[in-house]
Amino acid sequence: MNKIAPLLAATMFITVSTVRAAEVNVPPGTGGADITVYNSDLALVREKRSFKLPAAVAQLAFTGVSAHMQPETALLDVVKGDAIKITEQNFNFNTINPQALLEQSVGKEVSIVTTILNTGRENVVKARVLSADGPVFEIDGKIHTGLHGRIVFDNLPPGLRATPTLLLNVTGAANKDTDAEFSYLTGGLSWRADYVMNYDTDAARMDLTAWATLTNTSGVDFTDARLKLVAGDINRVYAPRPMAKEMRAMAAPAAPMADGVAAGELDGSHIYTIAKPTTVADKQTKQLALLSGQGIAVTRELVVRNDQPYYYASPMRGQIPEVKASIELTFKNDTASKLGVPLPAGVIRVYGMDDKGAAQFVGESNIGHKPVGSDVRVTLGRDFDVAIQREQTNFVHASDAVNISVWQVTVKNAKARPVKVRLIEPMPASWEITKESQPHKNPTAGSTEWLLDVPAKGQTVLEYNVKSVP
Known about the structure:
The chain is an all-beta fold. The chain has a domain at 301-324 and 384-468: Immunoglobulin-like, CATH 2.60.40. It is 1% helix and 56% strand. The strands form five sheets. Strands 3, 4, 6, 14, 17, 18, 19, 20 and 21 form a nine-stranded mixed sheet that branches. Strand 27 (375-399) and strand 28 form a beta hairpin. The chain is elongated, with a radius of gyration of 33 Å. 27% of the residues are buried.
């Protein structure tokens, strides 16, 4: 009779559970956690937890923690009861699963249970685990791989738990009720801003709605959590410092904020407090209304940005490849524009009306953090009908200290209406325009620009000479 039946499906189970002496399970309380979520896959979790030590020396097992917690940032602050002293802490994030059980049982004996096909009876053999990769067993002095059956473990290997668990070895008064605030930093929680712009081309106005998109991959559900969202660039090192208390937020104007959302400042960043508790489940993405504004004035431009200043430093053979003008929308983040609150970094998606009056998606653009008073620029895409062709018509290396570059820029407009095109050119470190067919505007140390009127179904040609120091 074969000791191993090769055709049965493999399953694994544990027959004996272990009990740890003087261990106290400290699950999350029922009041919900306070969670501050940052842009950079980081969150501060603060929870109320209660426990009672069975003896003066005990081990507290904090279950229901994030699988991505940074244990070195954990802080236990007793708010009611006698003080306790933490002598050691261990974070057990190796949770129970078939592979982990095998890995922890290498070199140990397990039982393999199979069912005899013609009788239905179970057959049990003892085997020593040689490797979890495969796995590989030793049975009666012979090496076996590819075995099918139920692998039965006599006990739970040390270090394995059902969920990630922070273990604290503590000393303190026995049989005393203790309430504490438990805080830690964790990855697996992040948020970003997602904006929806409804753009009215004829009125040059738009309505703007912002959503906070929160993603939880921490491995734990947070029920009825009180959320705060931080927008900003905080400095981090490899081992973050513990954050015992959240920094106090100063109030800021909140007129455009969504109902139940308050905006404030947080030491160089901005913080948005969600008033209503919400449940953030593991492996869930949730949208929360953040702010909105209606009737915001928008400026629409056709812009061409040349990003190659070396064009003026050497001779260029032939024409530069043709490019299309970018369509850019700009609005002011101030109270006069019916905004005036810090706008966190995110993606703005723009919808406009087609000639039938139906809403259509017309483009999207990333924006960085935008403080109050700043301009917000959104690039929709390229204009199909407006093309720009550059050509260097002459280059003279006048001396070791002077180059002269002669350029012709042709802007073509296939539309049935005239357009304005803003041409922005980077310049060398030291430059001078000695000749031009149209005057340049807004010169700076590193760039200048021209605003060109282009007739309907026509073109405009700009010619200019640049003298520069190589």
